[in-house]
Amino acid sequence: MHEISLVRNIFRTLEDEFKEDFDRIGKIYLKAGLLSNVQPILMQNAFDAVLEDEPQYRNKSLEVEVLPILIYCDDCQKTTEVQQYRFVCGCGKPSRNVVQGEELLISKVEFLEN
Q: Is 96 helix (H, G, I), strand (E, B) or coil?
């Protein structure tokens, strides 16, 4: 289950970035593109498993926002949302120019009051 290692990497990243305030982090927001191979329910299950295993993380929660796949068409110069994994622009031309959907990023962190 690669989600466990992803969650551990998220915690390490936050510990490095917020050395002094890591204990105050209450909620972590992620953005996961449909092509990132991250399923929100599996990510939440992995997050809960890490919380059980690592007591220092127990006061934190996770919210995952799934981002649709967007492609850019060079012919009509428009951005289109991919439907049913068909990478075809609204003008009918196929496109490989993915502009959204592959990311997995920490988008926001909420801190608890002192």
A: coil
Locate 109 and state its tokens.
Answer: 């962190």
Given the candidates 3.90.1150.10, 3.30.2320.50, 3.40.50.720, 3.40.50.2300, the CATH classification of the domain at 2-67+101-111 is 3.30.2320.50
Alpha carbon distance 73, 88 (integer Å): 9
pLDDT > 60? residue 68: yes
Q: What pTM does this model have?
A: 0.87
Antiparallel, parallel or unpaired: β 104-111 and 25-33: antiparallel
Pairing mode, strands 79-81 and 70-72: antiparallel
